Structures are given as structure tokens and as C-alpha cells.
Amino acid sequence: MSAAGALRFGRYAFPPNQLGYCGPEDHSALLEYVARGQPDRGLAELERHFEGAYPYLALIAMANRIPDPFDERVVDAYWIGNWLLVRVGASAFYESLRSRFRSRMDGRSFDWLVDKLGFGAMPHHNFHVFDVYMRAGLMNDPAAPILLKTMDACRVSWGEVVTAEGDHLLIRRPPLVLVSGRLGLGEPRPERVTRQVDGMGFVGDAQPGDLVSVHWSWACEVLAPEALARLRAATHRCLALANLTV
Questions:
Q1: Which sign does the torsion angle of CA 66, 72, 78, 82 carry?
Q2: Across the strands, what pairs with 159?
Q3: In order along the chain (246 residues), what is the average pLDDT of each group of 10 residues?
Q4: How far is CA 69 from the centre of its chain?
Q5: Which of 1, 23, 131, 210 could disulfide-link 50, Cβ–Cβ 3.0 to 4.6 Å?
């Protein structure tokens, strides 16, 4: 197991886990593992129970002949976006989608989904949010509403730190918007996000001007400009695909 990759995966997996949307029940253990930076096999066992995300890691790793799904390159590909996604063939991606989600969708929705493989769909988290989740849902509560606000929280986004305020950061983040029937990103606006709870978090050293990634209103990590560029590009690609059938 890649310690760095497992820890980085946990930064993004913890926020929805804390809310009870996915993963095992012991979210406090996950937070402690990641915040303290002390991984062991127990961390990997926790993270394999993320039934939404882990199969994507396994798919990306297999397509790139990487033995460890928690290799940091694989984790980076899924949450942020990198060249490993390009190597995931349409056939393998189709089989993954079919086995996991076909029974959750009506035939028309599934056909629309897999048609996007021909337009370059890749197993990035934001593709899952905009195209899979909105049709199949993976929250533990099957009655959870699929709303624009929910998708905005679930996608991995970014924002610029304005101020640090105790356990929170004030950032400026471009929201997900629906304009004339098309999904897009609006102008950045102020938003408070969590950076720690009970003294444990992931971006304790974030300073004004830093760019942070955000998942379910948690600041996950400080992004280098190059990583931000990849996340931005992946997000816009996923939005373009979503808009084919929104």
C-alpha cells in the first residue's frame, strides 16, 4: 500500500464519510489516520469500503498496470485528473459502469451514460458526480434528493483562501450553476469551508492567497498551480459531457 496515496485518498473521502453518505461508519478513525499522517493496513481496510470511489481506483490502476489502487498517481487521477485517465479504455470503463450501475438506471439513462464513452468520458470523480450520481445515486439514503446544490457539494472544486477563521477558512469559490438548461461555473463568491474539527484537519497551514481543493465543504489540500490547472480542465471536460444530456 502506498502510504502517501492512502493518506491523500482519505483527505477527499473523509468529508462525505463524516456525513454518512459513503464508506464505513468509523469516520473518526479515518480522520485521525489522515490528520496524524500515520497510515497502516487499517487505513487501507477502511478505504476499501468506499463503494463509490474505490472501484474507480481499481479500474485506473488496472488499466495502467499499477499493482496498488492507492498509488498516489492513481488517487491523483481520480480526484484531480492526470494522464492515467487517458489509458482507461472504453471497453473496461463500460464494463465497470455496467456491472455497478446498470441495475440502478432505466435503460434510456444508461444508454445516454455509456454513449459518452465515445466522446472521451474518463473515470474522474466529477464525471461520476455530473453523469453517474445524478442518475444512479450512491448515498446510503436512497431517497436523498439529487439537486444542483448537492452536486455542487459533491464535486471536487477549488477556491482561493481569503482569511483563516479558527476551524474554518473563508474562500472564494466558483459555484456550480444552471443557466438556460446548461451546467457551468459561476463567478467566484465567498464561502466558509471547514479546515479542521477537534484540532484535526488537512490544511492547517493554509494562508490567504493559497488555492485549496474542496469536497463537501471541507478544505482537502493546498493545490499547486499545476494541479489546479488539471482539476479545472477535468471539471470543464466533465461539464461539457454532462451538458450533452442534462
A1: negative
A2: 212
A3: 92 95 88 90 91 96 97 98 97 96 88 93 96 64 62 96 95 94 95 95 95 98 98 97 88
A4: 15
A5: 23
